[in-house]
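Weekly puzzle thread! Below is a chain. First person to post its structure in token form gets bragging rights.
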Amino acid sequence: MSEFKTLVSNLFSKRNKALLRELVVTDFKLRYQNSALGYAWSLLKPLGMFGVLYVVFTQIFRFGDDIQNFPVYLLLGIVLWTFFIEATGGALQSIVARGDLIRKISFPKYIIVISGTISAFINFLLSLMIVLLFATITGVDFGPQILFMPLLILELYLFSLGVGLMLAALFVNFRDLSHIWEVLMQAAFYAVPIIYPLKLLIDNYSGTLAKIVMLNPISQILQDMRFSMVTDTSLTTFSVVQKPIAYTPYILTFVVLILGGMYFRAKSRYFAEQT
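Winning reply:
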């Protein structure tokens, strides 16, 4: 606990806050440099992907006919997945990309990873505002369960940060990891119930498969967000998996964050020589 307090106090020191702010601003500028539409791409990319998937899977394959507010249901999943991809992908290369800075200045190296995830998080919050607006226009009836959204957003960020810390430290020594991670994420897109309803797995495959899918923190967060924002008929981990196993994805979030932080801290002392 004392070590955690030290990390937090270091992060919020005047010097490190200034560095973090500068890194976040720089990340934003570099991401949309020489782009005609600039920051608008942070909103246009998930909306464009939503448009393609909505036409393909609702008009051709007829997914989601039995799901209330399915367009919002689908858009929320795409926005969440886009954040996870951007946060972990940016974190993966962050230490190597900032090698010159690491060799010149002494500061907590985890600030570099956090800055990358914050840049993606800002994009996520902007996209989430679009989802809320779209949900309001299409007549989604928000219930009191929407009050759980901030906790789910926090869980999503902490899990992404934990994965990002682990990837950033590994990538310093294993440069092939970026290609491996890209392939894994392409496969994982279909392993998480983003474009298909979870009920589809239960109806057409074994219930065991649905239970395994819902032990993934991303699946749990996604379905909980849909339950909180879109429709209270959305299946959640607790409606698919029995207690106490249903607590697994929540526990995994903090396990990944702790292990990622510990591994990053152990390797960070060698970053200056290896980047």
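Puzzle host: Confirmed. Bonus trivia for everyone else. Residues 2-274 form one domain.
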